Amino acid sequence: MKNPVYEQIQARKVKARLRMLQHAQRISGNVSQTCRFFGVSRALFYIWKERYEKHEVANPSHSGGASLRRRSSQSLSATALSRLRFADDHSEDLSSSSRWPRFAEEVSSGPKPPDAPLQVSGRSVQLDVKFVPRVGRARQRFYQFTAIDEATRFRVLRIYDHDNTKTAIDFLREVQDHFPFAIQKIQTDNGSSFGPQFTWHLSDLRISHRHIPPGCPEVNGKVERSHKTDSQEFYQGRHFKHKRDLARKLKRWETEYNEDRPHLALKGKTPGERLRELTQSSGTAKDLS
Asked: Considering its fold, how many domains does the chain have in total?
């Protein structure tokens, strides 16, 4: 039985990849520039291009000899969707052969099923930015940067004055210092803070970077859900005198979230308890003390 949500996510992915092919043909005229703009490797670009071209050859009736430019205004057939879909085994093979860092690392074919959670801390960490409600009389807007480990729901929260790449890199250092385990992959949306410079920085640290498909915030569902929890249980009804007051209270909330607040997704455990559980079973995490 088909899952309509899954099919919708797949359709968005395919349309995003088709836009990338069109960008190289119609706008940049340069594959390398297009790949840097969209945050993917050249090897992946050519895989998607080859699949599209194979579909055109195998199904000429769908296009009637139309070029990629004319196809942009037509709906994609089910065969085109399957041709352009990204297989995990291809992404694994490309890790050593591509001369560019893997901008779109381990793109999955949809959300992970709830009965197959990650069992390794740090294997995938979701990052996102939340606009903070106005603080005191300050006219300036503040931004909450959030990192959440998918396996344990363990989080790091920090407040910044700006939402840019420099801030994102600084926050990454905070996350690495605070997380008691090594980070293997970072997953973000396509915001300007997480663009090519951020990806290159992660590559230097030997951390892979996955951009979620455009218009699919549900793929970053864990961090999005945690932001909803922040709005309901932390920001709602609270007043902050200034930025330092906000940062101090947010730190206490981070500790409460990680060590005291039980999570339904963790069967009533706290993120700290889940982290220690995985640490004992795998022995891969750092000493929590």
From this structure: 2
